[in-house]
């Protein structure tokens, strides 16, 4: 019965079935990352009411997106992440803040308090880090071109971030003994291939619309770099 209670939840980690040392490690790591975010984020950006409204609206949209989910087994939920879109819009520190708000609100709402840090690291920090890494690599190594930005940063970045979450979630579930590795490899991880395509398509389309109609919402995009004289 205990497992059944988690079947309808959108979160990927089930705290009741994770070893206590893992939970402490997740919390310490999340708090350390939060400390970096507090020290380095340019908080003046949110003092502008327009920026604050866009940030809060994007956070609410991703929060709603997480409610559209499906479950393979209790603790093995699948849903779109939205992390790459947030990273391209706000850069990594504010994307992390948005993901921290989302995982905290969902954890409090569901009463699964001890899993908040783990879910933030798995479905927030990990895809944001992958998305930012892809952006930085593309920014340094490839020409500044609109289609390079969209297809690599948005489409490919979102797909790679989702696959990274799938691999990590599979590893955690297997190492914690929640499910056998062969079961996860056959019945859970393959669904992330489909989810990665959906995440890539959704992120690519939304980012394309934003850079065309509202480029000021996407802090990593610059008309002069990606469109002028191209």
Keywords summarizing the entry:
single chain; 230 residues; mainly alpha; Arp2/3 complex 21 kDa subunit ARPC3; two-stranded antiparallel ribbon; 69% helix; globular
Q: Could you describe the 3D structure shown?
A:
The chain is mainly α. It has one domain: Arp2/3 complex 21 kDa subunit ARPC3 (Orthogonal Bundle), CATH 1.10.1760. Helices cover 69% and strands 4% of the residues. The protein is built from 8 helices and 2 strands, in the order H-H-E-E-H-H-H-H-H-H. Strands 1-2 form a two-stranded antiparallel ribbon. The chain is globular. Residues 1-10 have low confidence and may be disordered.
> Ranges with pLDDT <50 over ≥5 residues?
1-10
How many structural domains in the coordinates? 1
Query: CA-to-CA gap between the ends?
Result: 60 Å
Radius of gyration: 18 Å
Named CATH topology: Arp2/3 complex 21 kDa subunit ARPC3
Question: How many E-type strands?
Answer: 2
